[in-house]
Amino acid sequence: MTSAPTVFIVDDDLSVLKSLGRLVRSAGFHVAAFCSANEFLGCPKDDVPGCMVLDVQMPDLSGLGLQQMLSASGQGLPIIFLTGHGDIPMSVRAIKAGAVDFLTKPCEDKKLLAAIEQAIAIDMEARRVQADGAELQHRFSLLTQREREVCCHVVAGRLNKQIAYDLGTCEQTIKVHRMRIMEKLRARSLAELVMLAREVGMTPPAK
Amino acid sequence: MPQLRDSDVWVNQAVQAAGIGIWSWDIAHDRIEISESGLVLHGLTADKAVNYRAWLMTLHMDDQEPAHQAIQRTLDERTDYLNEYRVVHPDGSVRWISCKGRGHFDEAGNPSRLTGVLFDITAHKQAEQALKDQHLVLVHMARVSALGELSGALAHELNQPLTAILCNAQAGQRFVTQALPDGDELRAILADIAADGLRAGNVVSRLRGLFKKGEAVQQALNINALVEEVAQLLRSDLVIKQVSLLLHLGADLPKTMGDPVQLRQVLLNLITNGAEAMAASAACPRRLQIGTSLHDAYSLEVNVRDTGPGIAPQMLEQIFEPFITGKPQGLGMGLAISRTVVAAHGGRLWAENVPEGGAVLRFTLPIMTELDP
């Protein structure tokens, strides 16, 4: 994911669409412009980081409708809404559904560009967290069944001796398992191991 | 009361009591005799002999030619003479006079005399004008209130070009600070700013075309241009109501005569009514179709068709009565006023249900003829 952030703009008014695209480009962002929600949905897009700037009132599918569809299908760039005719219930609905900002047209460039920067930062952070999570899941998947079992006991704060007894093996074997677990999960301390285990939702063994 | 048998006295008393003037024009000698009250009504005095020209000159300038023609017709066609005209008194005051008469002809069939009565109808005319003025005010108020309901959408219609202008200007400001400003880009920005400035101006002039107050005017109108104008003004309102609009405008339609402000108002009412009927029910599709066509050899037809729930059969006529409304915030004046406006233009406005669903409002307007001014 090395591509530069892209701002996806959807507005049914062609001159507004064009001018918004120019403004966003003048601030150094990549722009992809669409004149309807359906055109946006119908266009194949790479999974690039970025955000969306959506007009609320559009024929056929409104901005709020598009937001719903995107979040229902699990694909969602952060959204900034632009409206010429917004009311408070509408903005509350949009923000509750996860919009980054809800701006009124005509909008000051600094406000819009700041919102775009914020939205892109949110997207980047979400991507980083997602990538980290995926990486951690991968490390845990390297554990054998037995190592996973031992890991559960270790993070529950049990001593090697107790674990060996519980699992019906000798303390030396547990020490080896433990060393391998630390290696595979790239944990440098017991405290880090506990933290990683919590992040993937590992639960302590049933008594 | 023997004196009552004396017909002169009898007639004179009755005539004076009624405020009627009697007159007789001796055509051969061009002399007009007018009773005392008739002279007063015309602002004339008894000390001067009155001929046809002197009488004609007492009339308001705009009424002289029509009055002359009416008299010619009476004499040519031997019909009764009936005319209404304004008289301007020496002090500048204006009276409305109704004048009735009948021609007398000699044995050769030539007109010899025209005799009749005249009476003051100023009060009646004033009342008529007051009523007309009141109706104009009512129509104007209904128009302003209809526009008031649309104010959000109309502001949006103006806001769009303003947004584009602002974004373009701000983008331009950023571009010029770059090391190597792109001249083509800047030229394109300025061209777009100019175009959006014009667009905003057009919105304002379309709005002005609906807010205008005053005397109803009659002019030759292209009905399709009128439909397109109102449709453009309502574009935002229809988008907000999630209604799609389709225009089916007949090609090469003849012109009609009418008042553009009032006819725009009729179109505005019909379009917003149709859109609201659809927006009120969640289930139905929301398509509004406006069509123009020839209705018959003498008239054009405009129809506004929606895909809403339609109109209950017993309501098809009632919806044109004042204060009948299906809208919670509506006054119920829109269709009533639209019908009177169309009728004043010599057309007809009515409602039908469409078999496939929805309602259609149709109105006709007479085609402009060569006789129209």
Describe the structure.
The complex is a heterodimer of chains A (207) and B (373). With 207 residues, chain A is α/β, with parallel strands linked by helices. Chain A has two domains: 6-131, Response regulator (Rossmann fold), CATH 3.40.50; 142-199, Arc Repressor Mutant, subunit A (Orthogonal Bundle), CATH 1.10.10. In chain A, 55% of the residues lie in helices and 12% in strands. Chain A is built from nine helices and five strands. Chain A has helices spanning 14-26, 37-42, 63-72, 88-96, 109-141, 145-155, 160-167, 171-184, 190-199, and strands spanning 6-10, 30-34, 50-55, 79-83, 101-104. Chain A has a five-stranded parallel beta sheet with strand order 2-1-3-4-5, with helices on both faces. In chain A, helix 3 links the parallel strand 3 (50-55) and strand 4 (79-83). In chain A, helix 6 packs across helix 8 (171-184), helix 6 (145-155) packs across helix 9 (190-199) and helix 7 (160-167) crosses helix 8 (171-184). The radius of gyration of chain A is 25 Å and the shape is elongated. Chain B has 373 residues and is α+β, with helices and mostly antiparallel strands. Chain B contains eleven helices and twelve strands. Chain B has helices at residues 7-18, 36-42, 52-57, 61-77, 122-149, 151-176, 183-211, 223-233, 235-240, 260-280, 334-344, and strands at residues 20-26, 31-34, 81-88, 94-105, 111-120, 219-221, 244-249, 256-258, 287-294, 299-305, 349-353, 359-366. In chain B, the strands form three sheets. Chain B has a five-stranded antiparallel beta sheet with strand order 2-1-5-4-3, with helices on both faces. In chain B, strands 7-9-10-12-11 form a five-stranded mixed beta sheet. A two-stranded antiparallel ribbon of chain B has the order 6-8. In chain B, strand 11 and strand 12 form a beta hairpin. In chain B, helix 6 packs antiparallel against helix 7 (183-211) and helix 10 (260-280) runs antiparallel to helix 11. The longest helix of chain B has 29 residues, at 183-211. Chain A binds chain B through residues 12-13, 15-16, 18-20, 22-23, 25-27, 57-60, 62, 84-85, 105-107, 109, and chain B through 152-153, 155-156, 159-168, 170-172, 174-175, 185, 189, 192, 195-196, 199, 236, 239-240, 242, 244.
